[in-house]
Amino acid sequence: MYEKDGQRYFVVDSHVHWWDGRPANQANRYGEGFINCFYDYHRNLSPESEVWSFEDFWRQPEERVLHDLFEVGYVDRAIFQPTCLTDFYVNGFNTTEQNGVLAEKHPDRFIVNGSWDPRDGEAGLDRLESLAQRWNLRGVKLYTAEWKGDSKGWKLTDPWSYRYLERCQQLGIRNIHVHKRPTIYPLNRDAFDVADVDDVASAFPELTFIVEHVGLPRLEDFCWIATQEPNVYGGLAVAMPFIHSRPRYFAQIVGELLYWIGEDRITFASDYAIWTPRWLVERFVDFQLPADMTEYPQLTPQIKKKILGLNAARLYDIEVPAELRLPDVPTDSGAAVGSEPRVPA
Between the chain's N and C termini, which has fewer beta carbons within 10 Å? Predict the structure, then answer.
């Protein structure tokens, strides 16, 4: 929980990892290049005081994860999002099982999400069911650009993907986090395109599709899709650190999201350990859109409370202390969940 100027904020970091990018776990030059690319994001978009050594970035000990997130990072609950990359890393980069080690020790702090890949066919469906039973899954993280053998990506609209989404629905896994972000070496940019979200969001209205990284650099495409699909949300991982390095660009991102999809469908994420939540939360609470951006709603404390934690808490049925909740009042900024689109179909 973060408190400033008499306002208290319940914080859900909806996109964190506990990865292993150490050289001993790198299966090939692609594994080396992937963690190097992550570190470039970390180093180039962080304040100088928040930059780690490369060795610290490879792998964080358990005590550091707990310290960075909960002791100094203001986080009340964190959601692990797996990134398996088994073609690049000997034991995988950041799997459900690896994240689950910490979650089992600290069940009041972490939520574990699973993952699936439609290229795994029937065997993958069985594995998904096993993960769901083992971890009581409420969400999955999908990585459409992940390589597998000769395949360099897949689409949500692939026939087998529909089989997996149907199984998620049957298993009660309703939060589908889809990785759609700037490209990462050596993955292909086109495999992160947001266009496939449109079809599945219409086909599975009972599922919620959280587009991580709000589709950057395809923000406009994401917004036009999400405004028509009330079950599409935007996750702010990767967008958040621009609050330091390019604050006006960050203001444009948040302003567009507020204008098109509204305050109820945006979720905070640090993308730990690329960045740590402490400075992101502090700066976001202090942040206001520039005065000349009059076409956008202003960031009120109520809106910030929703983005920092209350929206994700609603998606994951996280109990929020009564004193940190908001009263049930209508909003006049953006399109609320279930409302009509802001533009005609």
Answer: C
Average pLDDT, integer, range 164-175:
98
Single out the residue of 294, 299, 287 nearest to residue 247, CA to CA: 287
Lookup: tokens for 128: 């998904």
Phi-psi region of 284 (alpha: psi -120 to 50; beta: other; left: phi over 0): alpha
CA separation for the pair 50, 45 (Å, rounded)? 10
State the DSSP code for 153. -
Taking the C-alpha atoms of residue 78 and residue 292, their distance in angstroms, rounded to an integer, is 35
Helix (H, G, I), strand (E, B) or coil at 209: strand
The tokens for 118 are 């439609």
331: which 2 tokens?
Answer: 């909003």
In sequence order, what are the beta bridge partners of 208?
A: 175
Residue with tokens 């948040």: 254
Q: Which of 52, 126, 127 is nearest to 82 (CA)?
A: 127
| CB-CB contact of 267 with 233 (8 Å) | yes
Tokens for 162? 């529909």
Q: In this structure, are residues 185 and 33 in contact, taking their beta carbons and an 8 Å threshold?
A: yes
pLDDT digits (tens, 9 = 90+) for 294-337: 999 999 999 999 999 999 999 999 999 999 999 875 544 444 33
pTM: predicted TM-score of the whole model, two decimal places? 0.93
Which of these, 314, 231, 242, lies nearest to 14 by C-alpha position? 314
The DSSP line for 51-108 is: PPPHHHHH---HHHHHIIIIISS--SEEEE--B--TTTBTT-SB-HHHHHHHHHH-TT
Q: Each residue of 95-134: pLDDT tens digit?
A: 999 999 999 999 999 999 999 999 999 999 999 999 999 9
Task: Give CA torsion, residues 261, 306, 212, 85, to 10 deg.
Answer: -160
The residue assigned the tokens 């978009």 is 45
CA distances from 85 to 25, 35, 115, 204, 235 (A): 11, 11, 11, 27, 21
